[in-house]
Specification:
Elements: E1 2-7, H1 10-17, E2 21-28, E3 31-38, E4 41-47, H2 52-66, E5 70-79, E6 89-97, E7 120-121, H3 124-136, E8 144-151, H4 159-169, E9 173-175, H5 178-188, E10 192-200, H6 206-231
């Protein structure tokens, strides 16, 4: 079994490499794919860059060139669920593109994509594995929610945008890649999961929070990934 790991930023890649063994790099289409092991499982990690197009492109290359069995996307996100604090974790049971809107046509809801739907659900087996991992956790100080991750090509710093994402989509956090990874995996019938550490809360001043806490959020997500892969 081979598992693809997708991250968006250098900070997220550093934390992923910190839990990997036996590196081997291969460049494809200007992307660096890193082969190794996490929790004794074969993995291929790659930094896709920020945004939905980068995420979708990298996901398809990973599937086409490396024949992965599952894909897990990890990284940081902004929390919009008031129950979440910085450094908490959201596991995406379902994902939605909250900036996708053809509702003016009258045939679709906001966020709904033709042939895909409004919400894309993560792999049932991987979600259940997460639940088993959470039951065994010793560190209960970190709140972990299995919920909804909302994706857009927006760094969400406006509190009103955050409120709308929460109200319209029941989002727990917002970020810029997860639902694009999910859409490609859904169309290619590849099991997937998205894990996000909370780095900030969109309140108009969250850019400083993001740069202060993104590496911690990425580490929290990577640590959960490491525990999860012992179960796979």
């Amino acid at each position: 079994m081979s598992i693809g790991i997708i991250v968006a930023t250098d900070e997220e890649l550093i934390e992923t490499k910190n839990i990997m063994d036996s590196f081997e790099e291969k460049n494809v289409y200007e992307l660096t794919f890193i082969k190794g092991k996490i929790s004794n499982k074969k993995v291929i990690a790659v930094k896709c860059g920020i945004g939905k197009v980068n995420a979708a492109r990298t996901t398809q290359i990973l599937i086409d060139k490396f024949d992965v069995d599952k894909i897990i996307n990890i990284g940081a996100a902004g929390g919009v669920n008031p129950a979440l604090r910085i450094q908490d974790i959201v596991i995406g049971e379902r994902l939605v593109q909250y900036d996708f809107d053809v509702s003016s046509s009258g045939d679709y809801e906001k966020g709904e994509i033709q042939g895909v739907g409004k919400y894309i659900k993560s792999d049932y087996e991987l979600i259940n594995m997460c639940r088993r991992v959470l039951e065994k956790r010793i560190d209960k100080d970190v709140n972990v929610i299995i919920g909804t991750i909302a994706t857009a090509d927006i760094f969400c710093s406006d509190p009103e945008d955050a409120r709308k994402a929460r109200e319209e989509f029941e989002a727990d956090c917002v970020e810029m890649e997860g639902a694009a990874v999910a859409q490609v995996c859904y169309l290619d019938k590849i099991p997937f999961l998205v894990i996000r550490g909370i780095s900030d809360t969109p309140d108009g001043g969250n850019e400083m929070e993001y740069y202060t806490y993104c590496h911690i959020a990425a580490k929290r997500a990577a640590d959960l990934l490491q525990d999860l892969l012992w179960e796979v």
